[in-house]
Write a structure and sequence with these properties.
alpha/beta, eight-stranded mixed sheet, globular, 293 residues, Rossmann fold, single chain, 15 helices
Length: 293
Amino acid sequence: MFEGFDDARITVDDVTINLVHGGDGPPLLLLHGYPQTHVMWHRVAPTLAEHFTVVATDLRGYGDSSAPPTTDDHRPYSKRVTADEQVAIMRHLGFERFRLAGHDRGGRVAHRLALDHPDRVQALAVLDIAPTLAMYTTADMDFATAYYHWFFLIQPFDLPERLIGADPAYFLRRTFAEWGRDETAFQERAMAEYVRCFTPATIHASCEDYRASATIDLDHDRADIEAGRRLACPVLALWGANGYVGRRYDVVDEWRAWADDVRGWALPSGHFVAEEAPQETLDRLLGFFTDDG
């Protein structure tokens, strides 16, 4: 699925991150979302690699990356720790400054990375998310119904882990069916990889990712707001026209609360824009990252 790309595993502070990289040109880091792996980029990465040196990682706790032990405050799965790790990976590959795109959970890591490391990120694309703090603080029955997993996955260990673990393949496929709008978009090879990587360790780690988002990540976001800290780079927001985020939020306006230079478009898809609308995703990403110079 990543023809011409090289596989690599890089260890940072005893955590090993799995990734693929390929292409030529300025560096571009791609971060996946839940419940996926770097494989979610397989329909767009080869073309992006014609213009950029593309790096697509498995976040800590996902895919074939390490799932380190957690703590009571969920700090090991905070977006800050995960973002710092991604910066270290790019530095290891020789890239001090790069373009950055993140979908779903990867978009939240990318948001934190660009805030904490403004000198590293040349341009930021966030796919099918509104800012975490905005989503939690506007939650109501409609939100809780559509995003029930936000409240299910943050329940104390080991309730969600046990329930998902009873039939992980069913939970995974049900999630894709509910969040997506085109079941034919998910190639069987990709789906097989998502199922393979949905293990007890990654199920637990992904729950920790969500627990961190509902606790320590909100503390970090509030501290940024109080300090007046904003995104220094241009921001592109893309979302599925047939998904929940675009229906619920003025996505561009929500990101303008965090950045001055924001542009955005709806794409003809559900949540999984890079697989459901790959050509439209490519067109917008290439236009944005190429215009950024």
